Amino acid sequence: MQLDGETSGQTSRIQITEIRVKLTDDPRNKLKAYCSVTIDDAFVVRDLKIIEGSKGPFVAMPSRKLADHCARCGHKNHMRASFCNQCGGGLDPDRAPRDDRGRARLHADLAHPINSQTRIELHKAVVRAYYEEVEAMSRAGANYRPKSFDDFDHLSDMIDVDYLEELERRQEERERRRREGSAPAERTGGAHTEGAS
Ligand SMILES: [Zn+2]
Predict the structure, then answer these.
(1) CA of 90 to the centre of ligand 1 (A)
(2) Is residue 99 located within the same domain as residue 165?
(3) DSSP state of 167
(4) Looking at residue 150, what is its pLDDT?
(5) Distance of alpha carbon 51 from alpha carbon 56, whole angstroms
(6) What's the confidence (pLDDT) of residue 73?
(7) pLDDT per 10-residue tile (average), the chain, 197 residues
(8) Structural domain span for residue 91
(9) Taking CA atoms, which of 8, 95, 114, 164 is between 20 and 30 Å from 191?
(10) CA–CA distance from 185 to each of 16, 62, 110, 113, 170 (Å)?
């Protein structure tokens, strides 16, 4: 599908040429699916996730946990760690960077659209592909065979609670901004700036 439109001065010109969806097995899991997206038949982004939010499914971009260096030994620890993994020194578990509402940012997106038009189009396309896969599964019943992603099949279906909460907050923040009629460009370096207004 060609994502080519002009809305509020922003233009999306990427063409998503393939979306692959791998549903998770456990219906209680808020992580509903993994996706990979091919752009312009030339570039693949993997590990997008479909999360079941309070207002329906939304898309999370591939991300990593933030970490920082221990002041004593320099070892990198994740932001919520109370002790250094290397030297055992005490760490402040509340030291994560905060958004403008004072809430901890523990994850940063690794690949993401940099304008809202592209984000909206991408998310629409991915959610549509997700619904199509769910439908294909219910049509096929016991005969459903999930697509194979090779090494993708071995990704963990676990998603930590901190991350889920952070994603839901970001999603609510976007909806709030949309309601208020302001749709600022997606900022780069998600961890420290995205979500700030
Ligand atoms: Zn240390």
Answers:
(1) 8
(2) no
(3) H
(4) 67
(5) 8
(6) 96
(7) 49 86 86 93 93 90 91 92 95 87 86 91 95 94 79 69 85 84 54 38
(8) 67-104
(9) 8
(10) 20, 19, 17, 9, 14
Distance 87 CA to ligand 1 centre (A): 4
Ligand 1 centroid–CA 76 distance in Å is 8
Question: Residue 79 Cα, ligand 1 centroid: separation in angstroms?
Answer: 13
For every residue of 34-59, DSSP letters joined together read EEEEEETTTEEEEEEEEEEETTEEEE
> Domain boundary at 104, 130, 153, which?
104
* Ligand 1 center–CA 46 separation, angstroms: 33
The predicted pLDDT at position 151 comes to 64
Residues 115 and 160 in one domain: yes
How many separate domains does the chain show? 2
Tell me, what's the pLDDT at 33?
Answer: 92
Distance 83 CA to ligand 1 centre (A): 8
Q: Given this model, what pLDDT does residue 61 score?
A: 94
Say yes or no: 125 and 100 in one domain.
Answer: no
Q: Measure 93 CA to ligand 1 centroid, in angstroms.
A: 14
Q: How much is the pTM?
A: 0.74
Q: Say if residue 79 is in the same domain as residue 158.
A: no
> Looking up tokens 């439109």, which residue turns up?
5
Distance from the alpha carbon of residue 159 to the mean position of ligand 1, in angstroms: 27
